[in-house]
Every structure is written in structure tokens, then in C-alpha cells.
Amino acid sequence: MGRSADVPRAIEDFDGDDAGCSLLHVDMDAFFASVEIRRRPELRGTPVVVGGSLRGVVAAASYEARRYGIRSAMSMGQALRLCPRLIVLPPDRDAYASASAAVMAILRDVTPRVEPLSLDEAFLDVAGAERLHGRPAAIAAGIRARVSEELALTCSVGVAPTKFVAKLASARCKPDGLLVVPAAEVLSFLRPLPVTVLWGVGARTAEPLHRLGVRTVADLADTPLDTLRRALGAAGAEHLHALAHGLDPRTVQSGEVEKSISADHTNDVDLTAEDDVRRELLRLAGEVGRRVRERGWVARTIGIKIRFADFRTVTRVRTLPGWTDSTATIYQIATELYAGLGLDRPRIRLAGVKCENFRVAGQAPEQLTLDTLGANHLDDQRARTDPVIDAARARFGAQAMGYGSLLPTPGQTDRGEGP
DNA sequence: TCTGGGGTCCTAGGACCC
DNA sequence: TCTGGGGTCCTAGGACCC
Fold this sequence. Notes:
Order of helices and strands: EHEEHHEHEEHHEHEHHHHHEHEEHEH
CATH class of the largest domain: Alpha Beta
Number of domains: 3
Number of strands: 12
Shape: globular
Distance between the termini: 53 Å
Largest sheet: 5 strands, mixed
Strand order of the largest sheet: 5-6-1-7-8
């Protein structure tokens, strides 16, 4: 762990050739856990994980927790068995989002060519920033210094000629490190690594590769493309073969917009009552609708996801004749899709609602109302109440106001959906 | 205390149109 | 009456990522 001797070039003594290494990958260290520890200094040096619910998994683990073998995506039960004195903190998405915004602002001071991948990592293309800010390695060091001094957080930065090598480099120098992979050293850097480090090679893809005897990136690079095509399908094979040869034509895409917005939730206790499921769909529809409206968008495709007690998962989507941003419409479609499953005495572990197929509101040809959908007892009067509810929630929190009147049994609401 | 929640991308099959 | 081929849109599921 840390900057050990096998890390080829820490920046402090980097005097090599970073020419053409214009891609940076910035990755925050144990991000959620670090944000929590920052505001609770008494937790520093202790094993901490973020990830809350009864049936949850670890979302982030401090490096002290990792010493016990705890990793993200591990079930909370397993994590607690590995370290009984583990401190478990519930996630605070707002706190991570605002810390993330502060990090991204530092990155955008260097160049507008920033592509966030998630709250805690981003690619930068600094090709145009060198005259102003110096060589890529110096820019990376500067970013690390600012993040540390201004935000009291640490990050690791990979510097390389391509996106995926930069990403591998940041992973190889974690935590709190910096690694430059000069253009001339890309292949010698890549070839000894296990294939599973390549982006897109998970457990399922590794299996056929291992059957072919492919274990390292070098093995992959030296396997004929046709053999890979038969094992993986054309698209995956060509992509991975190119990566194994250090080729990655992808450029940094700033201004990427989301293609879908979804909310789902695993219940501590499986839902069995029809009303409970509808209430949950309504809550999720409200969440998704709010986030669609927040962006000033409208959506044409609405979907649900249902996971049963046995973990079997089904999805249903419907593309509408027009666009909507109304919680009532999203909820209406979600309940119809749910009814269409024709379930008999289901035990529902997780329910989810999703919107996709977006347009900017006002630029869409027509907005749907529930009238158009044949539900004429509910109408766009409710759509007009969405902005009021959004404003109240923004000011007073998620519990402030809801859609109790949409429910079949409004008297029984218990999740803050009351009037 | 088995298996979160937010996403992206790919595949395969069917409908439909020309 | 045994029937092609291409293109697009839509849906369901699954792999993968953080």
C-alpha cells in the first residue's frame, strides 16, 4: 500500500519524458470515507466504512479498514466479521456531491477539458494548458497540492498518453500518489499486468479469457484477434485487443449529459402488500421526476425495476407517444408496468423507477398529460404542483411535502408522503 | 446480516417499413 | 402460399464500472 518502491516514478523525482502525456486521471482516495473523516477528525486512523442499511454493502472503506481485507461492494455483514470494531457511517450524498463539486472546480481551473466519471474521479486533457500551467507532470503535482491544501483530501493522479493508461496509473499509485507513464514505456507498463485490470474485463469476461490461457495483458496482446472474437464477440474483442496494445482513441468528453436518471431502493424488509409497493413506486417516481425537472428536461421512456426476495430481477420499460416531467405521469406509467407483471403474492426486495430518452423541456414537440394517457381523473393540474413541491423540498428537505393524494389509501402514508 | 445505488454499453429478438 | 434484405425503433436482460 502507498507509494512503495515498485512504483516506477513518483513525481518528486520525475525527470523523465512526459511529452505527449496529456491525459490525467484524478481519483480521490477512499472518497466517501475521507469526507466523513474530514468532518470527524476523531475518526482519523480508525477503520471506517460508509454504507448504511441493514442489507447494505460497503460503499467506501478507509485505508485502515482495508487493512482488515474490507473492500467496497462487500456486504456489511462480512465487513463486520472481518473487523468487529468497524465504524459504519450512513452515506450522506449531499456532502459527497458538494465535496466533489469543489474538486471538479479545482480541475476546471486547469482546463475546461474535464470529464467527470463519477463523484470521485475525472479525466483531464491538459494538451492546451501547458503554456499556462507547465508540463503534465507539474500540472498533476499542482492539482494534488491544491486538493490537499484547500480541501484537506487526498487524491491520486495518473499521467499518460491515453485515458485508460492514465486510469491504470492512478490505480497503481494509490493512495496519495502520482505516476507518470511515458509514451515509450506504455507497453512495458501494461504487459505484465493481469488482464482483469483492463476496463471492461470483469468476472464474466475473464472466464473465457482464462480458458484461452490469457492471464496477462501480454497474453491478450499476443492472441490472434479472430480467436478473441470467437470467445468474446466482435465488439469486445476488438476493443480489448487494442487496449492490450496500448491503443485507446477515446478523447476527453467534457459536457457529457446523463442518458438516464433512476432511483431504486432495497428495503430492509421485503414488501408484500400492494399498497406498500405503490407507495414505494410513488416515492421513487417523485425522486426521479424532481431530478428530471431540476435539469429542465422531459423524458419519453419510463421504466421500473423489481427485484424479488430470491434476487431474481425483472425490468419493464415503456416509450410514450410524447414527453413528460410530471411525477404523476411517471408514477402512473410505473404502476401500469408493475401491474403488467401480473404478480401473485410477490415478495419484493427492491423497487426502482427510471426515466430516459430526454429532451430539453420546451423543445419537445408535445408534453403529455395524463389525459392523453387515458387517465382523465388525474390531470396536469398535478403536473403544475410539481414545481411547488420541488421548491418546498429544496427549502425544507425531502420530507416537507409529497403526493399523499395520489395514493389509494392516503390516510396510511408513513414515508413523508402525507399532505 | 450474502448480494447498494448510481450509471453506461452491448446483444438479441421482434415489429415495422421500404 | 413458402417468401429477401436492410434499416430503425423498441424491449429485456446482463456485464461492467465506481
